Every structure is written in structure tokens, then in C-alpha cells.
Amino acid sequence: IYKHKNFRINYTTYDLRRSQDCVNPRSEAPDIMVLAHEDSDHPYWYTRVLGVFHANICHSGLRSRDPSPQHIEFLFIR
Questions:
Q1: Are 12 and 64 in contact (CB under 8 A)?
Q2: What is d(CA 63, CA 61) in angstroms, rounded to the nearest whole number?
Q3: DSSP 15
Q4: For the residues of 22-38, what is the DSSP string, one character each?
């Protein structure tokens, strides 16, 4: 597992322009809002990012199609 200092999110704005945000877990406001699951009562989840990581994962299960390592990025949140 590899730790990173921040992460960048590319997205499309309401007026169809491309933009990018950067979230740093050590900043004063490492809070994010993401689209909730369909079953949720509220349309968004609000969370605080505690860490940014990536790992190279090898999946070798019965349904595995590619034995080579896959780069997976993930956040540690609260």
C-alpha cells in the first residue's frame, strides 16, 4: 500500500466544462460530498478524507480474467 499527499478529481461542471479539484487530507477542509447509493434516503454522502492510497492488486479468484497486477486507488474516510 502506497500513501499519497493529495488526490485530484476531474469532473464536468453544470455548464459542461471540464474542471479539476484537489483534496488534501491535511488541509483545514478535507471534506467531500459524493453521490449516495440508490437505496439511501439522502442523495449525497458527506465524509472527511483521512488518507489517500493506492495498491497494486493481483486477483486470482475463479472469476479473474487478468492475472497481472491492477492499480487500485482508494480513500480512507470517516
A1: no
A2: 5
A3: T
A4: EE-TTSS--EEEEEPPT
